[in-house]
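Q: Could you write out the predicted structure for this multi-component system? I'm mainly interested in how the pieces pack against one another.
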Amino acid sequence: MEFIDDITYANLLAGLTVRSAIARGRIKNITLPDLPDGYFAVTAQDIPGENKLSGNVKGMPYLAEGDVNYAGEPILLLAGPEEEVLHDIAAKILIEYVESQPVLDMVSAEINGCVERIQYSLGDPESAFKNADQIVEGEYTMGSQVHCYPEPQGAVAFWDGTILMVYASSQEPFSIRNELTRLLKLKPGRIRICVPGLGRALEGKRLPSVFIAVHAALLSYAAGKPVKLIYDRYEDFLFTPGSHPALIRHKTALNKDGKPQGMNVDLLLDSGAYQSDSSHVLSQAALAACGAYSCANIEVVAKLVLTNKVPSGFFQGTGRPQAFFAAELHSARLEEISQLDPYIWKKENLLSEGHMTPTGWRLKGHVGAIPVLEEVVRISDFRRKYSAYTAMKNRRKSIQKSQGPLRGIGLSICSQGIGYLGPSIGGDESYSVKVSLNMDKKCRIYTSLIDMGQGLKHIFTHLASKILNLDASKIIIEPMDTQKVPDTGPTTLSQTLHIGAKLVERCCLAIQKKRIIQSLPIEVMRKFKRAKDQNWDPLTFKGNPYESYAWAGTVIDLEIDPVTLKSVCRGIWMALDAGVLWNEEWAKEIAESGFIQALGYASRQSRGPDEDVTKHPLLTGFNMHELLNMPAIKINFINPNDIQHSEDTKAFDELPFMGVAPAYTAAVSQATGLYINRMPLTPEVIQECLATE
Amino acid sequence: MPGNRIKLKFTLNEKDVTIECPPGRRLIDIIRLDFKLTGTKEGCGKGECGSCVILMNGNTVNSCIIPAFRLADANIVTIEGLARVKGIPDIRSLFAEIQPLQCGYCASGVQMVLAALLLQNPKPDEREIREALSGNICFCSAYSGLLKSALHVVKHSKKRRYAKRISG
């Protein structure tokens, strides 16, 4: 399979990004050395159009001009035949700054004011807290984490004077085309974006991929030659967007029986230097702030701040992992205070049919929270192990004097909302798919969605084959080329199932009908229609924000070495309610791979100004699992009936990222007896918590 | 020889080749850029992930950390030449039969490691397969599909040998 770095041209130039050395300030002067023949430099002044990303991004330039707002912000680009020479030139460039004091932590940034705020409430939280018998508070923090996709960010561009050809490793090829249309003032027909093999992007090849593709295009536009711009792993780790760091404060009012009467959640997200996609992340985090629990009186305040750090971006789960992490860890505290088994506490407090959600929507019909709880507790033998490990912990004098490994088990429940009914983040009213049945009796599917290992080829082939009664070998998914396929939106599993599969099905059903009365070839295009639900108000956060929900219960059983504080998972169980499945085996593979990634997410180093990863971003430091140390994972899908229509399916790819981290942290808390309120949870963090204790 | 360049002769996918390059040039760059064999992928550039594994004198090496000067008279096999290696089945085709849900980026490295394992141990059990592949990181974490593919290769490998024994 071909990836970006495999693309080559004759006379191909290498590209290099020259970045800001300071976190905040003003560029006073740039002095370039004399460039050898065949070498080119591009600055902000060379961009024909407006030097800013469009869409949901606010004020973020492609190349810094005047102000710089984070260390590593691109200032200028270089291209030339030899990469070593480019590095020599870069070392000789003199950039003079007038430095300002950067803001590097969220709390300081909050004092200066937030750039966006969401607030909503349910019932009468003020009275609930006034009349409470006990108020439990907790503060939970999450660092910024990187995606670690297979191939680092990269693009190859060639402007030949007529057509701009761009090969991009991107989930959003049409966003690249739209940006280049604007920046270079070219008609869309003169820009062609192709995506070769993408690799599992993990939401990391959305905005950053647009950024680097535009940079490669700018270089080629200036040079008139093909340019390849690829970040090495180090540069990618340090300077591309990671997840939004979060600081979440929970306050819960309990009655004399320990039952929650009021919830107050104050959620703070760090957008980094610019608001890139952060509004959507904030709204999703705000919606998940109370977790999967029911409470009659709720107040949620969600805020976004800017700091002088690398801009945050999309990450698996889009803000919900942070919210569920805090909600689940806080519920673990409430369980402990109530002295109830977590299963019993959760069963009494989880959302179910008839309950009101935090946004004031009364749930009707099947609610998967309690079924997944029952199933995961059953298959993991959670209750017996939880009692046994609690007894072990209570008998222990200290961790240091422990005779054997420390044992712990954690449980979490989470949900993934599907089909957000709020404002479209990418113009989805124009998303479409085209399908044709040709004279050669082959069916061709045209879509901008790419198979990056999420099963797109399997699902679309299965659909077309079944409806059109063709052998799978006769179904062809056309290569991604913006001049040949329609825009079906960004490639994600959710998009594949929720939009792509439905459109392919509708096209194939239309062809099936037309075939009776029309000769071949037949070509059909269908456009996505958003569900017009009048029950969701994105301004007041009232109503039902999603078309449906998938649910997950996660249990992790682990042991910790009392000397090294390194943990090993002895068993992992997940119960998933994801509606009907295309293929249970594929679904388990997807869930399992998400689970393993999420486990790394829970225990990886995060990226921060003082942490090791900025100095030594090695893969070994990211605790990536491999085949030998892969934990045993048991995944059960509840009610995985045979699929009849694509309408019955639900995406579930984000559930591991919401469920694994809190279950893992709860297990470590039980094993060590420590109150742990942050992630990622490395042995060093456990050591710090021990020292504080 | 101009500057700091050396002349090296070695075998690449059963073909005798010669190259002139700086002594520290990485093997992965020689394979991908000089000989245009792009099946080998670079995942980390630091010898950690196993994406760039090739066979050097019958042993697996991470080509991103092998300097050119070690190539003198070496026998190099890349993923493009794997099908010609005697004593093992057509691993690439067997992987394609399973069609695991993977992006394919780490596949080349995995297949080379599997080839080296089968050359040394024609009948590895699951534990031995896991140990052999412990140096290969699948960035998608699609390990169950990867293991399924590896077991399929080994099973097929055993069948062929049995068939050969039968046919004498």
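A: Regarding packing and overall arrangement: Chain A has a mean pLDDT of 90.
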